[in-house]
Amino acid sequence: MSQQGKNSKKAKQTKQQKNSGWFYFHIVIRVIQSLLLVVVSLFILFGALGAGMGAGYFAYLVEDTKAPTKEELEGDLENVDETSHLAYADGSNISAIDTDIKRNSVSSDEMSDLLKDAVVATEDEDFYQHQGFVPKAVLRALVSEVTGIGSSGGSTLTQQIVKQQILSDEVTFERKANEILLATQVERNFSKDEIVEMYLNVSPFGRNNKGENIAGVQEAAEGIFGENADELSLPQAAFIAGLPQSPIAYSPYTNTGELQEDLEPGLDRKDYVLFSMYRNHDISKQEYEEARDYDLTADFQGQESSDNNNERNFLYNTVMNEALEIVAQQLADEDNISSEEFAEEETYQNYIQEAQQKLANGGYTVNTTIDQDIYDAMQDTAENYGYLLDNNNQVEVGNVYMDNETGKILGFVGGRDYEDNQFNHAFNSSRQAGSAIKPALVYGPAIDQGLIGSESRVSDYPTDWQGGENEGEAIVNASNEGTETFQTIRESLEHSSNIASYHIYRDILNEKDDTSFVYDNYLKKMNYPASESWTYESASSGVPEVTTLEQTNGFQTLANGGVYQEGYLVESITDSNGDALYEHEESPERVYSEAAASIMNDLMRGVIDSGHTTEFKSDISNMNPTLGDADWVGKTGTTDEYRDSWLVVSTPKATLSSWSGREDNEGTDRNASRRTAQYMSYLANSIYQANPDSIGADEEFELNDDIEEEEVSEFTGTKVDDNDTVEVDGSTMRVPNDTTESYWTNGTPPDVSFRFGIGGTEEDYEDYWQNGPDDNSNDDD
């Protein structure tokens, strides 16, 4: 074949190959096109199906929501307060709840345009384009909610005001659907400027320089910068605009009006707002940089005193504090906040702020346990007879009156004069417990554990502290370093011997080989404060600090047969329809056996009847014979230099406590307990005159049937045997024949021996065997 023919054939083959390649290429393209058409068709089909299902589900979620009228929306969006109240136990009014939020609404033309721009740029940059919600943001939030991936934010300004003013913070699809529906209704009925105005008038802005919670931009401008809302500079407007996201965290002020130590969170938030404004073309780069670099801290106002102090009182503050704790904890639980997170100061304060807003604006009634007649009578006594507590200086006082069976606080005294001193000495003042702690800490556990009986003997011979800061120092009673005898348990409590309680407490700790045994098994159950000081031997003399309420609850437990009921003030919180937001639920805790509690009440009856450490019984008998015949039990207590004077008394029905001392914690004098007894007599009598049934003057403490009444030697407190003898310093001595009844729980008296008692040295026992009991005439307190 010629070369020309070969070339022609080759060219023909090449052309055929090219045509074949294009053919297959076109086939592939057509297949891809077909597949894309199928995919797009499926996407459209499933999209339409999903949209239809979504629309149907949305309609289902909002089917019960009636589209509100403009008037209804206006009422909901601009309604910032529905008055809430505090009420006495009988339902009568104590006080309207102060919202603790200063609010002063202003019109849009009284607000800085910079402020409006700052809020829109930061919170909702698409505000002027959307109709109440942004679909892509809703989809993003939905995906985040379902998958847990990404941010669930995206609420518009309109949605935020709907959620804040009309709906709850509950995270459910139904609430979100209703939020979107209502947001579109708001957009239809109000202009954009009106929506911004409402948002800026109702939003919280933290605290002002008086420590008051504030809402609305006018109060924010005045309370932070001393300006009107239309006079704010750019950096000032940016700072205020950043506050609503986290008002407490970003606020420059504490709850006392002092500047926060760390202002960076709020200032960083201000810079973010400024950048958002720059990004949104509301301000120039130069304006942004100048405002960012401006020293805004120089504009913050100095601390000022609040104008509201005179509107409050001890009752209002104490009830509100308990109610806020309750609601804050509920809100945290709803958000699945752990106890550790809740204990963090910033988190805790945020929930307290939220609780304040919810309580103040929700039309709630906080129903208390307070008996109005009793409470008023107690205030009158403190005002008219508080002077009885004074020596050369004014002495403050705190009292709690509690129902034993339930823990209801029927009345209290926070102090002598609220206008003069707002510190609540009944609930907030922690002072050394003194000897008043001995029944709960020392004698109660020892009897409950069967280590002692009522007539066991304990050393009151001179001795020294064996450990702790006071090691080597003499343990002293009120007027001596020991009466040089072995007292009965009953005598040692009546005379309040520090030496005796020391030996008993050491005996418990040594027996259990655990320095935390008493706190873990007794005091902790009664919510006494955790402290390492309970593990020290000095705790037996009342060194640890407690509040008057905590001290009262310890005696309530013993008077209630050993069952602790936490003292409380708030019975329930109900809304305007009477539905309960909260109801108190009793949580009784068995601390001491019923037998041990009844023995303790028998011993503490002797404290009051004997008059060794208090003249309360004779004082009340002279004042009111009926009350004098009541079955009073209790204990006194004083601390070093008579800084603190305690007296807590119980009947089977109620417990009444008193702490008194100087505000500066300086000492008074040895007549402090005498003055306390006089004051307490007037207090008990005033309560009886106000509500005699509350005291139960005709009721009596009874010994429990499980108590073992053991016949013991009066001399040793041990078992009795006619032939009992002991060896004393090489001589045989017979145990004296006199016997007595000793009350025991699950233990029994030990056999007679040379070392028959608790505590004491070899020489102490020899002295006692040879000389017998001494006169117990010196008392501690």
Describe what you observe in this structure.
With 781 residues, the protein is α+β, with helices and mostly antiparallel strands. The protein folds into four domains: 1-61; 101-299, Penicillin binding protein transpeptidase fold (Orthogonal Bundle); 401-694, Beta-lactamase (3-Layer(aba) Sandwich), CATH 3.40.710; 708-771, Rossmann fold (3-Layer(aba) Sandwich). Helices cover 44% and strands 13% of the residues. It has a five-stranded mixed beta sheet with strand order 2-1-6-14-15, covered by helices on one side. A hairpin with a 3-residue loop joins strand 18 (644-650) and strand 19 (654-661). Helix 3 crosses helix 11 (264-279) and helix 5 (157-165) crosses helix 6. The chain is elongated.
What topology emerges from the helices and strands here?
Layout: H1 3-61, H2 70-78, E1 85-87, E2 93-96, E3 101-103, H3 113-123, H4 135-147, H5 157-165, H6 173-189, H7 192-202, E4 204-207, E5 213-215, H8 217-225, H9 234-242, H10 247-250, H11 264-279, H12 285-293, H13 314-334, H14 339-343, H15 345-361, E6 365-368, H16 372-385, E7 396-403, E8 409-413, E9 431-432, H17 438-448, E10 457-459, E11 486-488, H18 489-494, H19 498-512, H20 517-523, E12 545-546, H21 548-559, E13 563-564, E14 570-574, E15 580-583, E16 589-590, H22 594-610, H23 616-623, H24 625-628, E17 633-638, E18 644-650, E19 654-661, H25 672-690, E20 708-713, E21 725-728, E22 731-734, E23 739-744, H26 762-771
Parallel strand pairs: 1-6, 3-5
Antiparallel strand pairs: 1-2, 4-5, 6-14, 7-8, 7-19, 9-12, 10-11, 13-16, 14-15, 17-18, 18-19, 20-23, 21-22
Helix pairs in contact: 3-9, 3-11, 5-6, 5-7, 9-11, 11-12, 13-15, 16-25, 17-19, 17-20, 17-22, 23-25
